[in-house]
Protein: Prolyl 4-hydroxylase
Amino acid sequence: MKSFHKIRPELRDWILATARGGHTPLEVVKLMQEAGYDQQQCHRAVSEVLGVPLAALNATIPRAGARRTTHPAAPSSVADGHAVRVSASLDSPVVRVLDGLLTDDECGDLIALASPRLARSLTVDDKGRHQTDERRTSNGMFFSLGETPLIERIERRIARLVDLPVEHGEGLQVLHYQPGQEYEPHFDWFDPTQPGFNAVTARGGQRIASIVMYLNTPKEGGGTGFPAAGLIVTALRGSAVYFAYDTGDQSSLHAGLPVLRGEKWIATKWLRERPYQR
Ligand SMILES: O=C(O)CCC(=O)C(=O)O
Ligand SMILES: [Fe+2]
Structure:
């Protein structure tokens, strides 16, 4: 297809060189924007030069009504009458380590509720289908929103903490890792250039933030790693790691590091830009 807006040869060469240098199309767009190009110009040029569908790049623009979380502020935040300490903060990726998000009793009760319902964890493939995956060897289960008074209380606490309505949350997921099990580096946001993108974002839109809550303290290993920042958050019972990201934020890459001794239990809350629950 012929474009009405001619792309200067220098810009075309720069886009190609930057992409060949290992940058994703979304990163190329970001670099162009930082250099002063407007969003539409960037999308048009990157789409044409790299052959990425324009719709995939446009899907990264938050649509009307899309919300963002408020990052919990140090030193502490009172959410729904419960004090949470912010013991570490990072800007890129946006990370907050939250101490005392859950009580010991809440951790124990969540494990007890989830245990009888565990099954091998799934990932979402490029057609939007759920499947088992060697990269993710834990066992897990989902609660529905507000399924029990405990779940409801935790969801309300998180909603107040990040100032986002409960309805933006996916159902709470509990994962159990045994020694040797891990969750290899990945992004929680959905890749707009993948064919399954429309299916997974049809309800609630894109993911914007995650909260991984540690329900026990593994004897060794099992932290959450953020390789772009060289950061490992220790899995400590009752504490949590909150991280927020825009679509395409490469710094939000993270992993559930292998459990070396003992076991690891977490509860994950993924948050969407629009209401996910009807
Ligand atoms: O197990 C962890 O520490 C990380 C879990 C995670 O990345 C996720 O549930 O999306
Ligand atoms: Fe994750």
Q: What stands out?
A: The chain has a mean pLDDT of 91.
